[in-house]
Each structure stands twice: as C-alpha cells, then as structure tokens.
Amino acid sequence: MSVTRGFYIGRFQPYHEGHHAMVERIARDVDELVIGIGSADQSHTPHDPFTAGERMMMITKATQAMDLLTYVVPIEDLNRNAVWVSHVQSMSPNFDVAYSNNPLVVRLFEEAGIEVKGSQMYRRDEFQGTEIRQRIVDGGDWQSLVPPQVVDVLHECDGVDRLRQVADTDDPATGDDLPGDTEMSDGGAEIELSEYSGLDASE
User: Fold this and answer.
1) Phi, psi of 73 (to 5 degrees)
2) Residue 189 above 60 pLDDT?
3) What angle do CA 124, 130, 133 make, to 5 degrees?
4) What's the number of CA atoms in the CB half-sphere (13 Å) around residue 202?
5) Comparing 135 with 200, which gets the higher pLDDT?
6) Distances from the Cα of 84 to the Cαs of 52, 101, 137, 142, in angstroms?
7) What backbone torsions phi and psi does residue 117 show, to the nearest 5 degrees?
8) What angle separates helix 17-26 from helix 52-63, to the nearest 10 degrees?
9) For residue 2, what pLDDT band results from cuts at 50, 70 and 90?
10) Are 104 and 203 in contact (CB under 8 A)?
C-alpha cells in the first residue's frame, strides 16, 4: 500500500493554534507528516526563546491524538538557498509533497523536483508568534492562542519566565527586538517571512 508523506516546516516559537489548524488541514491530504523545526540551533533569545527539544515536545504532545503519523525533526539554519532543499532532505525522512505559501520556498522545492501545495492562512492577524510572545512578556492572554499541551510544556520548562527575562535584558543593538520583528527563514532558507499562520509560518 502506497503511503503519502508530507513535509511542513516552521520555527514554532511557540507552536500555536494557527499551526495546529494547518496540520489538521494537511492531515486530510497525507498519511504521514514530517514536521521540520526550523532554526533548531536557536534558543534563549526574544525571537527564538524555546529550544528545539522544547518545540518537539509542544508539537508531539499537541498532535498525538490526531489520526496522523508524525515525525518531528530538528533542522538547523543554513543560509545558502541553492543547497537548502538538500539540507532539509538530509535531516528528514523522505517526503512526497511540501506545504508552503512562501514564493522562494516554493521555488526551491520545485527546482528540486518536489511537489508543493499551499493553503489559506488561518486567522493570520491573531495567530502570530510575535503577538503570542509579546503577550507572554506583557502578562496578557496567550494561553487561548496555543493548544493546552503547549501551555503545559511552557510551564514545565519555565518558558514564560525565560522569555520575560531575555526580553528584558535584550540589547536593541543586536536587532533582536521582540516587538514587530520579522520572521527569519523557513528553517534556514535565507528569506524573511511574515509571522502568519499559513503553511509556511516560520513560527
């Protein structure tokens, strides 16, 4: 029996309900899904506060009840677009179709002969990593924007206090300011992405 395996990459800082809705939508198309954690080497900054391991826990716990076999794999940054797809493939199980709405990511996968599908963004104005991180820093309601399993993981790893501390001590000269920051790469492709909840949402 033939199995269709998809691929979806993001930074998941943190994994939120927009990501979750997209995974549920992808699950209607594929038998298995590889979820790539982009910028896996980054953590403990306002832009990337959570480690790859913590993000793996968020995704694994949030998706475990789905009728979908998922593989969560860390993918470190590689800012060389021409070899980015090969880099992703070397870190991931084989996959048949990639999901992204980002023009550069689509182009890179298509040049590598990989089918790419897109999807509508899901409540982009609300489900953004920057917005959620800012709410955490400000003491606002962030819990309603993420699956309950993610709330549990953040409590377990003391992620709330960590983010507030690194945001408070961040040096604006580094360019890593929390408010209004733009999204870096879809897991290492050298492109800036807005923080929306589409299939290439980098958070």
Assistant:
1) -125, 135
2) no
3) 125
4) 25
5) 135
6) 19, 17, 33, 33
7) -120, 150
8) 60
9) confident
10) no
Strands 32-37 and 69-74: parallel
Residue 133 has pLDDT above 60, yes or no: yes
Rounded-to-integer distance, Cα 28 and Cα 17, Å: 17
**CA R_g for the chain:** 16
pLDDT value for 197? 32
109: tokens are: 């996968």
Neighbours of 147 (CB within 10 A): 20
Return the CATH number of 5-174, one of 2.60.40.10, 3.40.250.10, 3.40.50.300, 3.40.50.620.
Answer: 3.40.50.620
CB 153: neighbour CB atoms within 10 A? 24
